[in-house]
Amino acid sequence: MTHHTLSRNVLNALYNVLGSRSFDNPVYLHEPSFTGSNAWCYLKDCLDTGWVSSSGQWVNRFEQELAAFTGASHVVAVSNGTVALRLALHLVGVKPNDEVLTSPLSFVATANAISHLGAVPHFVDINSSTLSIDPNSLSDRLLEISKYDNGYLINRLTGRRLAAIVPVDVFGHPADLASLSSIADEWGLPLVEDAAEALGSTSGNIHCGLFGSIGILSFNGNKVITTGGGGALLTNDAFLAERARHLSTTAKIPHPWLLDHDSIGWNDRMPNLNAALGVAQMEDIQCKLSAKRLLSHRYQKAFNSVSGVEFLTEHPSCHSNYWLSTIRLTSTETSLVKDQLNDILSLSHASRIFLRPAWKLLHKLPMYTTAPRNDLDVAEDQSLRLINLPSSPQLVDKYE
Question: Taking Cα atoms as reference points, which of 284, 280, 295, 171 lies closest to residue 230?
Answer without folding.
Answer: 280
